[in-house]
Amino acid sequence: MLRTANISYRIGKKKILNGITAEFKPGEFNMILGPNGSGKSTFLKIFSGEIQGYEGSVFYNEDNISILKKEELAKYRAVMSQQPELSFPLMVEEVVMMGRYPHFTFSPGAKDEAICREVMEQMNLLAFKERNYLTLSGGEKQRVQYARVLTQIWNRPVSGYRYLFLDEPLTSLDINYQQEFLRIAQAFKKEDTILVAVMHDINLATQYSDKIFFMKEGNLVAHGHPADILSESLLEEVFSIKASIISNPVTHTPLVIYTNAASV
Amino acid sequence: MLIALMVIVITCAIMFGAVHVSPPDMYLSLKHFFNGQNPANIYEGVFIQLRLPRVLLCAITGAILAVSGVLMQGLFRNPIVEPGLVGTSAGAALGASIVFVMAPAFSLSLKSFMGPLLVPVVAFAGALLATYMVYSLAKNAKRISIMSLLLIGIAVNAVCLSGTGFMSYIARDPQARSITFWNLGTFSGASWQQVFIVGTVAAVIFILALRYAKQLNTLLLGEEEATYLGVNPDKLKRRIMLLNTAMVSVATAFVGVISFMGLIVPHVLRLLIGSDNKKLLPASMILGATLLVLADLCARLLLAPAEVPIGIITSLVGAPVFIILLKRFNLVQHQGGYNA
């Protein structure tokens, strides 16, 4: 389980996060939604261990993150951030192999090679493996990064959970890959994985998530199962939009239809 | 293949020069040397006391500059960085020029006490001091921003350059010539003692640098990703800076300023074998050594028996090569330029 207790964070005088307490359980697909600048990415970076100097605490399965070693954490916690760029050319397979770096000392073992192959195969990347990463399109780069992140925690640790955090993972992807990304993540959640994603698309979120966390201006406004909490008034409160909610005829999950922008 | 090239170039470099040394002479000379005998003739003497230490020092220095280029470019995530950028060479140059100008005037006793090590020791101190200044000024609340490191590097370099300029201005003619020569680099003073000092430092640091190759790779993805892969970017930056400063300072202290080596070698290799530091670091040692030995060979042969300062050769050849690389392969654009 991942738990945050009363997380506050400010940059200078500006308050970015305002006392966020949340629980993310294994076996659930947790998604964080909110308008730009609501602090969702900052929140993710804090419980990922990237941002320091916040108030409050983050617990990985009862261990405060501050006592966990970065090198150890990297063996079971992987993070996909927004649009990472490479500063120099590398081959696709070299980038994917970086996901195994926390697991070996100098040269990758047979197991590391096998995992990279398996993940690249699943992501349809084998044909790309010797291409220069810098020459790929935005969506292709994103698939490579996703593959790298997945190889990092491909095997379940001997004890404890795996943690997979995704920060707006679908930004420049084609629709089929958006679904593919979420399906792969869903497969992870079944096996002792704590899964949190910052998302933009409300309808993808209602379709795939087990729990949605709505954030606005650094506060956690609402959280729970999408069918339980999603309402037209909540959407207006969080996003300032007029929307109607109907039932998706195929998946029977809530489907949001935007009707008219509210005059703010 | 690179290793074969290096062996050929080094053998040629040992054979040719103002005095030609043939392979049998080399063999006899080595035999006499290891038997504790004096060289039998002038050829053997040239080989063992001048040519061999010179070529070795040159190879080690070339390797140091190239490796340092790889480390710096990886650290700054920027393809246009070279080792001199953080003040190391400029600081060394200022130190050396102060010795050239002041030493004869003030402290004959100091000079006789330190002997031939006076210039290297002060240059080394200057290099360390300048680099430390850049580093500590760029440090902001425990974090080191790459951008401020670059900018403050430029500022400190400018201060050191103007100091060196002032020294040449007030210097008498022979001293001014010494400063000029030193700023262009030379291996004419190579000795076994220097080979030993620079070689030991280089060996230790190369081994350490290889151990950081994997961590340095993660930095290619940016500091945030490196953190997620279990690397502490700030700690890594401090260590790489320390290694880089130590080896460039030592090499520069003995041979003077040699530009462009640290810039060209990593780029050529990136085009040939990619940017994985595990391959890039060893390859750059070999190519750096080969190219600098070749440059020194040219420096000795072009105006033989006189010598051209090696820095003139490296800049004259290096700069056009660099421009061709930039134009042809569009390095800056493809590699992201500034995303510090």
Protein topology:
The complex is a heterodimer of chains A (264) and B (340).
Chain A (H helix, E strand, L loop, with lengths): L1 E10 L2 E11 L4 E5 L6 H9 L6 E6 L2 E2 L5 H7 E4 L11 H6 L12 H13 L15 H15 L9 E6 L7 H15 L3 E6 L3 H7 L2 E6 L2 E6 L1 H4 L2 H8 L1 E7 L6 E8 L3
Parallel strand pairs in A: 3-8, 3-9, 6-7, 7-8
Antiparallel strand pairs in A: 1-2, 1-4, 4-5, 9-10, 11-12
Chain B lengths: L1 H14 L7 H12 L7 H35 L11 H19 L1 H7 L3 H21 E2 L2 E2 L1 H25 L2 H12 L7 H20 L1 H7 L3 H6 L4 H23 L5 H13 L3 H25 L8 H20 L1 H4 L6
Antiparallel strand pairs in B: 1-2
Helix pairs in contact in B: 1-3, 1-14, 2-3, 3-9, 3-12, 3-13, 3-14, 4-6, 4-7, 4-8, 4-12, 6-7, 6-12, 7-8, 9-12, 13-14, 13-15
Structure description:
The complex is a heterodimer of chains A (264) and B (340). Chain A contains 9 helices and 12 strands. Chain A has a 6-stranded mixed sheet, sandwiched between helices. Chain A has a single domain, classed as Rossmann fold (3-Layer(aba) Sandwich), CATH 3.40.50.300. Chain A is of the alpha/beta class and 264 residues long. In chain A, 32% of the residues lie in helices and 29% in strands. In chain A, a hairpin with a 6-residue loop joins strand 11 (241-247) and strand 12. With 340 residues, chain B is mainly α. Chain B has a single domain, classed as Orthogonal Bundle (ABC transporter involved in vitamin B12 uptake, BtuC), CATH 1.10.3470. Chain B contains 16 helices and 2 strands. In chain B, strands 1-2 form a two-stranded antiparallel ribbon. In chain B, strand 1 and strand 2 form a beta hairpin. In chain B, helix 3 (42-76) runs parallel beside helix 9 (192-211) and helix 3 (42-76) runs antiparallel to helix 12 (233-255). Chain B is globular and about 65 Å long. Chain A binds chain B through residues 45, 48-50, 70-75, 77-79, 81, 84-91, 94-95, 98-99, 101-102, 106-107, 134-135, 152, and chain B through 73-74, 77-79, 211, 214, 217-218, 220-222, 224-225, 227-232, 270, 274-276, 278, 334-336, 339.
